Amino acid sequence: MDSITDQAPDIAPWRPYLLASLQGTKDIPESRYFQLASVDITGAPQCRTLVFRELHQDNEIIVISDTRTEKFTEFASNPRGQICWYFAHTREQYRFDVTAQVTTFVDNELWLTEHWSRLSDAGKKQFLWGSPGTKRHDLNPLESLEPDNVVPSHFCVISLSVSKVDYLNLRGNPQNRIVFEKQSDGSWCSLEIIP
Amino acid sequence: MDSITDQAPDIAPWRPYLLASLQGTKDIPESRYFQLASVDITGAPQCRTLVFRELHQDNEIIVISDTRTEKFTEFASNPRGQICWYFAHTREQYRFDVTAQVTTFVDNELWLTEHWSRLSDAGKKQFLWGSPGTKRHDLNPLESLEPDNVVPSHFCVISLSVSKVDYLNLRGNPQNRIVFEKQSDGSWCSLEIIP
Predict the structure, then answer these.
(1) If 0-12 CB within 10 Å is exposed, 13-18 middle and 19+ buried, where does residue A167 land?
(2) Which of A23, A159, B44, B129 could form a disulfide bond with B142, CB atoms 3.0-4.6 angstroms apart?
(3) How many CB atoms lie within 10 A of CB B28?
(4) pLDDT tens figures, A162-178
(5) Backbone angles phi, psi at B17, to 5 degrees
(6) Minimum-distance CB partner of B174 among A33, A80, A142
(7) Chain B environment of A129 (Cβ under 8 Å)
(8) Does ipTM exceed 0.90?
(9) Which helix (H) or strand (E) holds A123?
(10) Which among A57, A50, A30, A53 has a CA at the least distance from the CA of A116?
């Protein structure tokens, strides 16, 4: 489902926390869901649930999406985002300041095909039953109109590059909150703060 | 914990959905947690987990907070917010477009005292152990410095007035997505859209 590689020579200090949270909740499907906030062209915040796919060595969090959704337009005009990932089981919250970059099939055929082929049939179907957010004409089951072995042109991967992490552990005694911030030289600073 | 009253003569059409989701998950504490997105003064999205407290008759969702947190400053300059509330158990997502209004003790003593007195000792303690987000000087257990029977001046209630709801049910067959939007005359329109 999700893949995590951790062989970077210069490991960001928040990675061991996230890897432990993922490890401690690996049998709980909803622990892979997080919320991603963005800002729309009118300046209003938008927030939706997404499925975590990968954590890259260069501290990019990877999700998949559809270029026909609003977040595609939003990130085109303002690439700043924030992920809020709450692990109910371990009572930990991560808030990741991120910058979004969208990749489509024309940008990287191999990578997109890889992500597409990993999807379940039900997962693929969500990309093939019509343009999300448009009016639905009847309430019959939604049907796929395209073959599922071809990567649709609107299928995309969003790389969310992390520049800051606000980590909160509600189960600690004392409760813990640490802010990790990337410096201009690429190193990370961390500070314990009051929750 | 949370209280829901539903005696308004003109019931918003999304209320029965939310009331059913709350009823169907009433024994699951984390089903009362949702994410609230806002926009900070630099135009970046912010997103954090909050605890649902009440749904008012006039379609306001109520949470409690601390005026020393960033969201207080954020809502003072831009009151627009969006709640993303995912019910893992029922596989439903609500996205509420909201406008935030903050109430402190000086604005409404009775209401604030009511909310304060409903908090558990652990809940109160979080407001009494120092200013959130400031540097922590040691890692000893955080201690309350003030008596817990006095409502702190930084304790506040945030009313989130709902103007639009994007409801998604992933468990339906077919999947369902409905957008409910408040009209200028106070009535609500709804539209079935493609998920």
Answers:
(1) buried
(2) B129
(3) 14
(4) 999 999 999 976 689 99
(5) -65, -50
(6) A142
(7) 194
(8) yes
(9) helix A121-125
(10) A53
Radius of gyration of chain A (CA): 18
Considering the segment(s) B3-130+143-192 as one domain, its CATH architecture is Roll (2.30)
Do strands A188-192 and B45-51 pair parallel, antiparallel, or not at all (unpaired)?
unpaired
C-alpha–C-alpha distance, residues B29 and A125, integer Å: 32
Could you tell me which of B16, B23, B83, B79 has the C-alpha nearest to residue B52? B83
For B193, which DSSP code?
B
Across A118-146, b (16+ Cβ under 10 Å) vs e yields: eeeeeebebbbbbebeeebeeeeebeeee
Nearest Cβ partner of B49 from A49, A84, A173? A84
CB A50 within 8 A of CB B56: no
Q: Which residues fall within 8 angstroms of residue B157, CB to CB, at 6 or more apart?
A: B53, B62, B63, B64, B65, B102, B103, B108, B111, B112, B115
Q: How far apart are CA B80 and CA B98, in angstroms?
A: 6
Judged by CB atoms closer than 8 Å, whether chains meet at B78 and A43 is answered as yes
Cβ neighbours of A163 in B, within 8 Å: none
Report how far apart, in Å, the C-alpha atoms of B177 and of each of A135, A140, B122 are: 10, 13, 38
- Each residue of A69-104: pLDDT tens digit? 999 999 999 999 999 999 999 999 999 999 999 999
Numbers of helices and strands, H then E, in chain A: 4, 10
CATH architecture of the domain with residue range A3-129+144-192: Roll (2.30)
Residue A125 · residue A116 · CB < 8 Å? no
- Using one digit for the tens of pLDDT, what is the confidence trace for B145-195? 777 789 999 999 999 999 999 999 999 766 899 999 999 999 999 999 999
CB B143 within 8 A of CB B127: no
A123 CA: distance to closest CA in chain B (Å): 11
What is the rounded distance in angstroms from the CA atom of residue B191 to the CA atom of residue B85?
A: 20
Burial track B146-165 (b if 16+ CB lie within 10 A, e otherwise): eeeeebbebbbbbbbbbeeb
